[in-house]
């Protein structure tokens, strides 16, 4: 498939901090590519470099056939960027905000395109409402409409649904799914693992390093460990009491449950953990072997990175 983003040995430092540490990968045309990682992993920095906002970097970046260092302005005309804090004009209406961004991109006959985007984002009935009076989800959809006004070939979305209610998140993703049908390339970062599962491929970032990059399923299949999930009420107490059992490689807590990572299932580890819980009078609802989630995969790759 045609590669519309090519990155080779990308590095970016802020003083002594390696924000991006020698990463390389490609993104295909019409793909939805996702970045996941904790705060400070380098997701936003990478996106801002690719959008030509951060100009000083090492390595080679090519976007839609243009070299980023030599042709940033040509690239900017062909991409859209939705930042975490997209700057809508609060005292302008929905219509006026889209009009402003159309003029910013020097689009003269924008009325038809604006109508299409209002229908596409289901914002038509709110076109005369000021941006400051929109809900969080509506603001995100308006910001996306403004990003799409000039028909970009690639859109970069930096945690686009962060802080948005679940219903609005679902609606936003329905819009993105429709965009993919028109062969638009979507490059996004997200703090939500369930959103990353929707991507064709996912890159896992931590401290500027690319820990893994593949389809969500292949990343999960790459875990060569057994995972047990224990659902119980006293998570912290259970965590403290069983983390020292020798056969457990790692233990992670998720709300009302813990996940145990084991190399194999031949050392009666499950029985040892159950015995320990009973000795400590810790009651559990279930103790089952599970299929790894993408979150488990990230923890696994992160642990391997620490060991290296």
Automatic annotation (TrEMBL):
Annotated TM spans: none
Keywords: ATP-binding, Nucleotide-binding, Transport
KW Nucleotide-binding (keyword) present: yes
InterPro entries according to UniProt: AAA+_ATPase, ABC_transporter-like_ATP-bd, ABC_transporter-like_CS, ABC_transporter_ATP-binding, P-loop_NTPase
Domain ABC transporter: from-to ranges: 5-232
Keyword presence, ATP-binding: yes
An example Gene Ontology molecular-function term: ATP binding
PROSITE patterns registered for this protein in UniProt: ABC_TRANSPORTER_1, ABC_TRANSPORTER_2
Pfam hit, one: ABC_tran
Family: Belongs to the ABC transporter superfamily.
Protein name per its UniProtKB record: ABC transporter ATP-binding protein
Annotated source species: Candidatus Mcinerneyibacterium aminivorans
